[in-house]
């Protein structure tokens, strides 16, 4: 690869390439589900070209791989122009050869950002803050399960076998011994992250059997969504090396906790970096309260982004460490919106609604959009909740069939996210939901076949 191209790469990617000659470059984007789409090409070939093309139908695919027709949008599959964002270049250290991954920017042939691309949706929302001299900051938490290999969809998912020869046990939250049971997978995650230049803030055992939480450093929303996009693939590869699967499904195992992607938010002034969630006396600012008010008002409209599949709603179970409300409280994990213990400088609000099965670009975009609308509309929040919020009224849709109409009717949110994207997302998700309704579950066969 030519020297001028190498100089464009982040330090971690340059250090990786110093150890060997680049064989292949994977040119990738995230589709609506957050699946990596793109093409691979030899390193020298990548160095010779400035862009490549991909049909826009990649954003019309459902999770099953089918394509959706959008009312009023002719299906002609025009090419989009994909241009490498060299700041995202990172190693693929699990491959047998020397491979680099690069996320690409997506424009139409006139040079306009493609509105249906999830990464562009997030950039659009971040741009609203930037236009007012503000910078949103997020810190995601990733929860996922390591599970035994499962090649038969009809078979229930089971915990993995640990180094002791026993299956991982549930109800071992924060146990160091439980994490050690699958230490080789964790070691590879750390090694891969270091090779990719990603900083992990911490890894711990969660409450489910084989369930892990990985915390990330706070920072720019687009960069962190890029890292989650890369992390999901990397964690799966680390697990496969040790005869297990990593799953980001919201509720993979019956009677176990679900997996969330909690999102911490703050907003700072672009010049100077002052946290606008804190006033001059170190107390909650009006902007902070309005941000919470916006989330309470508008989050039901974007739950279809935060919980994008029918399985997502199995996570919302009372007393299963998952929120079922939009109350906010201080240091209270029973509320959907939690204000963690922090200094005034670090004041933030944590959205606990999103599941780990979400597309990180879209979940972060939707969550920030709600807070931004709250500040724009100067929406006051309800009083902070004291006590067990599971005793409060449920504030979020409990099925995907309820969530999608709320998204379809949310004019203010759709204006922020972009009408073209919302129309496509709604059609794709409607197609997925319709297909799911044709599937007859084992529960139905067991209890209804001969009893009703």
TrEMBL record:
Cofactor needs: Mg(2+)
Keywords assigned by UniProt, alphabetized: Ligase, Magnesium
Family matches, as PROSITE patterns: GLNA_ATP
GO MF, one annotated term: ligase activity
Signal peptide: none
Top-level division of the source organism's lineage: Bacteria
UniProt domain GS catalytic: residue ranges: 115-371
Pfam families in the cross-refs: Gln-synt_C
EC numbers: 6.3.1.-
Entries under PANTHER family matching the protein: GAMMA-GLUTAMYLPUTRESCINE SYNTHETASE, GS CATALYTIC DOMAIN-CONTAINING PROTEIN
Similarity comment text for this entry: Belongs to the glutamine synthetase family.
Record's protein name: Glutamine synthetase family protein
